[in-house]
Write a structure and sequence with these properties.
Structural class: alpha/beta
Bound molecules: adenosine-5'-diphosphate
Strand order of the largest sheet: 3-4-5-2-1-6-7-11-12
Number of strands: 18
Number of helices: 18
Length: 478
């Protein structure tokens, strides 16, 4: 059995800001069936310790970037975690990355260098008698682990390393003055190493130093090699093309199952979905109408393209569409969406974060809208498919890989599951919405699409096998 230490800054259901947490939290159980024993290394934020209890101390570090630290082994949600208990770094109010003032904690470089540092130490020494064969590092917060591991152990003896890009937008930047404080080798501070325009980039460190790179969909893997999507790191990605692969995210098909979901009137069929639909209309106070009820469940940021949806809302409503949105993020977008909710009877807006409500929305809607400018994989369209809710998505990243566009050919073949539009512009989005309205108005086509969507495999089976094969290839030799 391959042993893998998964290194990340968030892990559902314990602590989550986005899809990264869902994936990190789903992998250990998914990988067990594929013959991999995975443990998750995570900072011991107060909210996490409150849920897991303090467990057993398996490692101590006298000075973890400014204070003492302990690693605690705990079990939660059916898998094992190692928590870095370092009060000087993690015991504070606020969210994971942001202080109460809504800005990044100024010492974030140190806080997440500590994650990489402890990952490397566990890679080199094991923890509580458990020795990983592979370190699997997620996003920039874990980006320094492969570098620190390389400093500790020669090639051939150390565990293999995988760096997964869940979102290239977060570079993990720190000023060059931090080089010594972060215990980084000055001889790697150059453009072929972890320097990014005179700054330290922990993401780039991971991309340069890890044995293998993955990202969360095949299309995003290709996109990252282009200047349009590479966010300044496309050259690095091109240089590492041979060691890069895209592995699609799956979803937790137990947590997202219309037949057992405790949040809804459960259903297994197209017809059964109608009750959840009625309940959603009531919950959001939407007017009666003939067109599709669409939902959005999203962070409100530039990436997600929801400013474009605001531009075409009147046209969508005019065609009988209605919309319920749940989201939070950028203050300006929150304000514009609140105003849209006040202005239009057919639009209902909830600003906030609400997991339970998101289930009711996915279940009750006819369609889900994901007009992202880029989308590494995207999870909400996968939940939607499982609940027979038709995705309308931009043709990018994982959205391109998981939705079968209702083209004439796909409709004739009876395989369509959604609508894709391109480019990511208001005009193209409106074309997509018009296409949705037309499909929805044809009951035969519409129920066929719902059936197709509900049948599409969206779990972890295929991807877990791909990760297992990758770990096997690079795992530390016995
Ligand atoms: P990203 O990671 O870029 O935010 P994903 O689609 O990969 O996008 O994952 C987003 C996750 O966060 C999904 O599980 C989605 O349901 C959840 N989510 C986003 N916004 C909200 C919200 N306001 N309320 C509840 N869940 C949300």
């Amino acid at each position: 059995m391959t042993r893998v230490l998964s290194v990340a800054s968030e892990c559902a259901p314990l602590i989550k800001t986005g899809g990264l947490a869902d994936v990190v939290g789903a992998l250990p159980n998914a990988m067990r069936d594929a013959g991999v024993e995975m443990r998750v290394l995570l900072p011991a934020y107060p909210a996490v310790l409150g849920q897991t209890g303090s467990g057993e101390i398996v490692m101590e570090e006298a000075d973890l970037f400014g204070g003492p630290a302990r690693v605690r082994a705990v079990s939660h949600s059916g898998f094992e975690l190692l928590l870095i208990d370092a009060p000087h770094l993690y015991d504070r109010p606020g969210a994971i990355y942001l202080g109460p003032d809504g800005r990044d904690w100024p010492d974030n470089p140190r806080r997440f260098a500590a994650l990489g540092w402890m990952a490397a130490r566990i890679g080199a020494e094991g923890a509580g008698g458990w020795h990983p064969d592979v370190l699997h590092c997620h996003d920039c917060q874990a980006g320094l682990a492969p570098l620190y591991l390389r400093q500790r152990m020669p090639h051939g003896q150390r565990p293999g390393t995988v760096m997964t890009v869940h979102n290239m937008a977060f570079h993990g930047l720190a000023p060059p003055e931090d080089l010594d404080a972060l215990r980084l080798p000055r001889d790697r501070f150059h453009p072929d190493g972890f320097e990014f325009w005179d700054h330290i980039s922990t993401l780039k460190a991971g991309l340069v130093e890890a044995d293998r790179l993955t990202t969360v969909s095949p299309t995003y893997a290709r996109e990252l090699m282009t200047p349009e999507f590479g966010m300044g790191l496309d050259g690095v990605m091109r240089a590492r093309r041979a060691e890069t692969q895209g592995i699609l995210n799956g979803i937790d098909t137990d947590a997202w199952n219309p037949a057992t979901d405790p949040e809804i009137s459960t259903y297994r069929t197209v017809r059964g979905k109608r009750r959840a639909h009625r309940e959603l209309i009531e919950e959001f106070g939407l007017p009666e109408g003939y067109g599709p009820v669409a939902v959005v469940i999203s962070r409100l940021t530039e990436q997600k393209g929801l400013d474009l949806l605001l531009d075409v809302l009147p046209d969508f409503l005019e065609r009988g569409g209605r919309l319920a949105l749940l989201g939070s993020g950028n203050a300006d977008l929150e304000q514009r969406w609140r105003e849209a909710g006040d202005l239009y009877a057919g639009v209902s807006v909830r600003i906030g974060y609400d997991e339970a409500q998101s289930h009711r929305m996915v279940a009750g809607a006819d369609a889900i809208l994901v007009p992202s400018r880029f989308e590494p994989c995207g999870l909400t369209q996968l939940y939607a498919l499982r609940y027979g809710t038709i995705p309308v998505v931009a043709l990018t990243g994982g959205l391109a890989d998981t939705v079968i566009h209702a083209s004439p050919a796909a409709l004739t073949a009876g395989v369509a599951t959604g609508v894709q539009f391109w480019p990511v512009s208001a005009d193209a989005l409106l074309d997509g919405l018009e296409h949705l309205v037309a499909l929805h108005s044809n009951p035969k086509i519409w129920s066929q699409m719902i059936r197709n969507a509900m049948r599409q495999p969206v779990g972890w089976n295929v991807s877990a096998a791909e990760y297992a094969a990758l770990y096997q290839e690079i795992g530390k030799p016995e």
